[in-house]
Amino acid sequence: MFHDLWVPFYDEWIHCTVFFGFVHGRKCFFIEPHSHHNFFNRGIYYGHHDDAERFAFFSRAALEFMLKSNKHPDIIHCHDWQTGLVPVLLFDIYKYLGMTHPRVCYTLHNLKHQGVTGEFILRAVGLNRPDYYFCQDRLQDNFNPSAINLMKGGIVYSNFVTTVSPGYAWEIQNTDLGYGLNHTLHVHGGKFGGVLNGIDYDVWNPEIDRLIPYNYGIGNLDLKYGNKEALRHRLLLRQEFKPIVSYIGRLDHQKGVDLIRHAIFYALDNGCQFVLLGSSPDPGINDSFWHLKHRLNDNPDCHLEIGYNEELSHLIYAGADMMVIPSLFEPCGLTQMIAMKYGTVPIVRATGGLKDTVFDADYSDRPYNERNGYVFNDADYEGLESAMRRAIGMWYVYPQYFRELMVNGMRYDYSWNHPGGHYMNIYEYIREK
Asked: What CATH number is given to the structural domain containing 60?
């Protein structure tokens, strides 16, 4: 424990305690400020009026702790706008206080949220030269000349920038998914690349998963259907010869809520059962799905679970036959990777990390033994139906080929083995600069 950390913030110094512990076997430090601002202890992470100040303080506090405890890591790895000020502070303040060693890798997860805020945030953390930062080469927002953009600051000041899939890397440079940062990414294109995220196979693996009744793998795949029966029993669905189509995830605009709703009725109208597990940060969307749940409550082929339940999510992955992921954009997406590990065939829109990981059963240019799902291009009902129609038809008419798709997906390695190696190469590259 580090009892006596004082962090500058505006014209005061805030006293903090730093706790030490292990999370999943990894050494972690936790900063607790003793302040009337109550930066962190609010029950939720995002969505407050002072989010920019909260995360700016955290960025300054993290660096202040490293300085005062004499920690000089080779690499500081930052994520999204919330830590976009870390490389700015490191190279414009802390480098001159002795922290000359660290290099910064900065990862972008979602460019829809960039931390566009006012000049006051610079003064809050001691960057007291607003005219210096308010220029297009530094932190000035590309569209609002009177605002600063924290994500842009992270891109400009870091040594290397990554995003969470090669497909999303291309999209944010070349389409409107860049949300105004396209030019900045092109300017800094020499230090930018996409690295596909991975999933933890110690948690998401049907062979060892403790949260499902039947463990299985490619060699004993029929045991998957014990989980399908258990899922039906759990959710009071009728036991009948039908595929189960599923959705797990947030219910928001990015995920294609209208397409999710359409998928439910298309599945029910075409000889399938449907299971949904999800909730929305938007009260309006959440309410609409609650109404839909009540409307379908007596349907023996449908169950909508509004909320999140970790145990139930594992059972759905193990028991479902297909997983729909009709996202309007998807930087990486973990759902499709987890589904494939469990032999649940993904039906996805061709965007971001979805098109980097799912290869269409009928139209991919990959060999048949590398095709693992169904892909549609246009984010509309016709596009979704075209993929669902082919998947459902394959399940009913050519079950042996559908099983091959399941096995193909299970063979893919979407663990952290490959991306971990890519990040080690990036770390070595920037460490030597």
From this structure: 3.40.50.2000
Structure tokens at 216: 């299985």
Alpha-carbon distance 376 to 381, whole Å?
Answer: 10
Examine residue 3 and state whether it is found in any structural domain, yes or no. Answer: no
- Is residue 305 within 8 A of residue 427, CB to CB? The reply is no
What is the per-residue pLDDT across 21-34, written as a single tens digit (0 to 9) for each?
999 899 999 999 99
Q: Return the sign of the alpha-carbon dihedral for residues 210, 212, 215, 221.
A: negative
Q: Residues with Cβ < 8 Å from 259, sequence gap 6 or more?
A: 324, 326, 349, 379, 380, 381, 384
Tokens representing 2 are 């580090």
For the chain, the distance separating the N- and C-terminal CA atoms, rounded to the nearest angstrom, is: 33
Q: Are residues 338 and 272 in the same domain?
A: yes
Same domain, 398 and 427: no
Classify residue 192: in a domain, yes or no: yes
Cβ atoms of 63 and 98 within 8 Å: the answer is no
Question: Taking the model in full, what pTM does it have?
Answer: 0.93
Q: Are 263 and 281 part of one and the same domain?
A: yes
Residues 167 and 252 in one domain: no
User: Are 305 and 170 contained in the same domain?
Assistant: no
**What is the number of domains present in the chain?**
2
Domain range for 345 is 218-411
Measured CA to CA, the distance from residue 280 to residue 304 in angstroms comes to: 13
CA distance 226 to 159: 50
Q: Give the integer Cα–Cα distance in Å for 104 and 107.
A: 10
pLDDT tens digits along 58-73? 999 999 999 999 999 9
Nearest to 85 by CA among 193, 166, 9, 182: 9
Nearest to 58 by CA among 45, 72, 43, 74: 45
In a domain, 28, yes or no: no
Q: Where are the beta strands (DSSP E) in 227-280?
A: 244-248, 273-278
pLDDT tens digits along 101-148: 999 999 999 999 999 999 999 999 999 999 999 999 999 999 999 999
